Amino acid sequence: MSQTEGPLRAARVARGWSQSRAAEELATLAAARGVAVAAPLSLKTQLSRWENQHALPEEHYRDLLRELYERSEAELGLVAPAEPPTAASSDIETLRAELAAATVDESAIELIRSQLRATRALDDRLGAAAVTGSAYAQLSYLERALAYGTDSHLRRQLGRLVVDAATLAGRLALDGAEHGTAWRHFETAKAGAREAESSALLGYALVEQAAVLTDIGEAAAAVELVDQAITIARDDAPGPLRAWFEASRGEVLAAAGAASPAHSAYRSAERELSAGTTSGDISFVELPFVRFDRPALHRRRGHARRLLHENQSAIEDLQQALDYGGGSSRELAGIHIDLVYAHRSIGQLTDAAEHARSARAIAIRIGSTRLVAELDRPRELAPQPANGS
C-alpha cells in the first residue's frame, strides 16, 4: 500500500469526504468535546501530513480521529513505530506549524472581534441552538493562537478576545446544564484576563463563574467569588460598571438567603447607575459584551426578590423589566420563569401559567436545557423562605 493510500486516507475516502470536509468534521467533533484543535485551514494541512505518514497525530488528535472514523488506532495506521527515526524533526515541524498558524495581526484581530460580536448577537436572539458549534470553534482557535503567539501586544489583545469567547462558551455550557464544562470555560476566561492584564476582565470572569456555583447550590462560595471579583476590579471599574458588580453581588447574596445585604447591594447599584449616566443605558469600552441599564437592574433585582420570597415586589420589578423590552432571549425567558414562581407563590395561577407558556416556548427555541429544567422543577423542590423572612 502506498503512502497516499494509507489507512487514514482510506478511512476518509470510505466516507466520501474531501480533506477539507474531513477537517471541518474533525473541528466540529472537537468543539462538541471541548477539545482545542488548530484552525480548519491548519487542520487540513496537518491531516494531509498524517495521511501521507509524514507525522503522527498528537494523542488528543488520535482520540478524535478514532471517534470520527469509528476505527482503532491500529486500523487507522496511527500506531507509532518503536523507534521513530524522525521524532525530533517531526516535533519541531509540528511546533513550527503551530507557530505559523497562530500568526495574527491587528486586522485579523479586528475581524475576530467582529466575528465574536456577531456570535454574541446571534446568541442574544437565537441562543445555544444557533451558536454553540461556532462559539466553541472560535474559542478553540483563540486558545491556540494565544498559546503559540509571541508578540506581547497581540497576546494582550488575544487575551481580551479569549475572555469574550470563553465566557460566552461558559454560558452556553450552562444552557446545556454542563456545569463542569462551564466551570472550565470560565477558568479559561480568567487566564485570558490575566494575559490581557485587565483587572476589570478578571473580575467579570469571576462573576460569571460564580453563576456555576449558584446553579449547583453553593451560594456561600458564590458570594466569596463575587466579593473577590469586586476587590480585584474596584480600582479599574467606573461607577456604572461598579453598579453591575453590585447587582451581581446582590443576586448571589439573595441566593444565599441574606436579604438585608442583598438589598444594600442593589441600593448601591442604583446609586452608581444614577450617578454614572442620565439615560441609564450603559456599555463599557473594556467589556463591550457587558450591558447594564435600568431594565437590567429591575430584572436582576426582581430575580433576587423572588429568591427572597418577596413576591409582590419581585413581580413589580420583573414586570417593569418586561415592559422595557430589550435584553437577550435567555434573559427574557428568565424573567418569565421568575414571574411563574412569584405569581404561583401568591396564588395567581392563571398569570403563572401564562408566563410558564412564554418561558417554555423561548427556552425550547434557544435550546436551553437548564431553563426547561427550571420550569419542570417539582414544586416541593422549589426554594423555601429563609428563616426569619
Task: Give a brief rundown of this model.
With 389 residues, the protein is mainly α. It is built from 18 helices and 2 strands.
Explain the layout of strands and helices.
Blueprint: H1 7-15, H2 19-33, H3 40-51, H4 59-69, H5 87-101, H6 106-126, H7 128-148, H8 152-175, H9 179-196, H10 199-215, H11 219-233, H12 239-255, H13 259-276, E1 281-283, E2 291-293, H14 294-307, H15 311-324, H16 329-345, H17 349-366, H18 369-376
Antiparallel strand pairs: 1-2
Helix pairs in contact: 2-3, 2-7, 6-7, 6-8, 7-8, 8-9, 8-10, 9-10, 10-11, 10-12, 11-12, 12-13, 12-14, 13-14, 14-15, 14-16, 15-16, 16-17, 17-18
Q: From the helix content, strand content and strand pairing, which structural class follows?
A: mainly alpha
Mean pLDDT: 87
β-strand percent reads under 5%
**Global Rg:** 24 Å
Number of helices: 18
Oligomer: single chain
The number of E-state strands comes to: 2
Q: Report the span from N to C terminus.
A: 77 Å
- What is the string of SSEs from the N terminus onward? HHHHHHHHHHHHHEEHHHHH
Query: Which of globular, elongated, flat, extended, rod-shaped describes the shape?
Result: globular
In which order are the strands of the major sheet placed?
A: 1-2
| Largest sheet, strands/sense/barrel | 2 strands, antiparallel
What is the helix fraction of residues, given as a range?
over 70%
Q: Unreliable stretches, pLDDT < 50, 5 or more residues?
A: 278-282, 380-389
